[in-house]
Amino acid sequence: MDDATVQGTARHLRASRAGGDRRGAARPRRPSGRDRAKHRPGGRLDEGEAGIVTAYVGILEKDPTSLWGVWFPDLPGCIAAAETADATVIQAAEALVQWMALIEEDGRTLPPARTIEVLRQDVDVSQALAAGHAAVVIRPPFDELGLDETAIRAIDSAAERRGLSRRDLVREMVLNQIAV
């Protein structure tokens, strides 16, 4: 991620704390119950799905005069931008991790992830899709291991005690395990 993207991401992440729209501009908050009745706390869907939703739907856009961009309907202010669609999706996963860390740092819980079926009922999403933009599923990088939030916190705590990053601790543990 280049410096301009990092600075832009940080600016939009800060804007999300102030209640801005997907691009960080101030706008009135929607009613707190918007589509929330369909969700239980912790991201579990009441629509018959058993597991915790660990991925968020992003909207991939390309304006002819700007970069590719991704914004998340469920995560106000969490955005990513890059020169190509592929690079933007990679940036979006990184922005998602940063946004999640800020939420946790603030002592808040993550908003539940809505399914694309539910999101299609959202005015912003339906307009974006009608304009030809694409819905993309973005998973935080740690989700590839199938770990829940409790496991991630335990890994982070163990890494901190050893003075390592999450990545370095997991790498060390895996290499020790397969070196048998």
How would you describe this protein?
The protein contains six helices and four strands; from the N terminus they run H-E-E-E-H-H-H-E-H-H. By secondary structure, the chain is an alpha+beta fold. Helix 5 crosses helix 6. The N terminus is likely disordered.
What are the SSEs and their pairings?
Blueprint: H1 3-17, E1 56-62, E2 68-71, E3 79-82, H2 85-105, H3 116-119, H4 123-130, E4 134-138, H5 149-162, H6 166-178
Antiparallel strand pairs: 1-2, 1-4, 2-3
Q: Low-confidence parts, pLDDT < 50 over ≥5 residues?
A: 1-53
Largest sheet: 4 strands, antiparallel
Number of domains: 2
Fill in the CATH topology of the largest domain.
Double Stranded RNA Binding Domain
| Overall mean confidence score, pLDDT | 73
Helix residue percentage: 40-55%
Count of beta strands:
4
Q: Kindly report the spatial arrangement of strands forming the biggest sheet.
A: 3-2-1-4
* CATH class group of the largest domain: Alpha Beta
CATH architecture of the largest domain: 2-Layer Sandwich
Structural class by SSE content: alpha+beta
Strand proportion:
5-15%
User: What is the overall shape?
Assistant: elongated
Any key phrases for this structure?
4 strands; Double Stranded RNA Binding Domain; 6 helices; elongated; alpha+beta; four-stranded antiparallel β-sheet; 42% helix; disordered N terminus; 180 residues; 2 domains
